[in-house]
Design a protein that fits this description.
Pfam families: Ank_2 (PF12796). The chain has 226 residues and is mainly α. The chain has helices at 3-21, 24-32, 47-54, 57-65, 81-87, 91-99, 114-121, 124-132, 147-154, 157-165, 179-184, 189-215. The N and C termini lie far apart (89 Å).
């Protein structure tokens, strides 16, 4: 093996180990010494992936600032750094990755997106961050199940509220069931049903208010034109 190639491989292996451990100072030294920032194992696992998994915020920022590829997925499963960070509840890492161009809808092999796993885990701050970044509320996995369905099934009320506010349909079927039916099948029908009904009522009031404004119902005599 070429000595230069062997050196880069050794540097890459060391860098990945340091990224997993969160040793920011040594990582910075290695990057300045020419260590390949995107060096990966055979399964595609990079230093950024490992740091994202562990929630090492400073390491993730350092790697991203050095141009690390935020899209590289680990096999098997096509799990991106964003997905693993969302799964493990690392809100700041999720935000950093999104700021550096990570795709919010990049799904793993099962079709599950970062939003799906965040809603499943009820990490509401991550759900909010992904929604702000444009994550699709209607994207479903290979079983046809979407974020709202899994959140309702598990009784994750805050995630349910956030998804509804972002445009998820409270009555659309997902995987053959409505959100309420998913909740009810797991003993969460009462609490989730209340949230769904409150959302429908709020949406109806807003619709009626906008219709009233369009008709001029809320215009007072002082506001009317002569």
């Amino acid at each position: 093996m070429d000595s230069h190639v062997e050196l880069k491989q050794q540097q890459g292996a060391t860098l990945r180990r340091l990224c997993q451990q969160g040793d920011t100072m040594l990582i910075q030294h290695m990057l300045r010494s020419g260590a390949p920032v995107d060096s990966s194992q055979a399964d595609g696992c990079t230093g950024l992936w490992l740091a994202s998994e562990q929630g090492h915020v400073d390491v993730v920022k350092l790697l991203c600032d050095h141009g690390a590829n935020v899209h590289v997925a680990k096999q098997p499963g096509d799990v991106t750094p964003l997905y693993i960070a969302a799964q493990n509840g690392h809100t700041t890492v999720v935000t950093l990755l999104l700021q550096h161009g990570a795709l919010p809808n990049a799904a793993k092999a099962t079709g599950a997106t970062p939003l799906y796993i965040a809603a499943q885990q009820n990490f509401s701050d991550i759900v909010s961050a992904l929604l702000r970044a444009g994550a699709g509320v209607g994207i479903v996995n290979q079983q046809g199940i979407g974020p709202l369905a899994i959140a309702c099934f598990l009784g994750n009320l805050e995630s349910v509220r956030l998804l509804l506010q972002a445009g998820a349909d409270p009555d659309a079927q997902s995987g053959g069931k409505t959100p309420f039916e998913w909740a009810n099948s797991n003993g969460n029908g009462q609490h989730v049903g209340r949230v769904l009904e409150q959302f429908r009522e709020s949406r109806q009031r807003d619709l009626e208010r906008r219709r009233g404004l369009a008709r001029g119902d809320d215009v007072t005599p002082l506001q009317q034109k002569e």
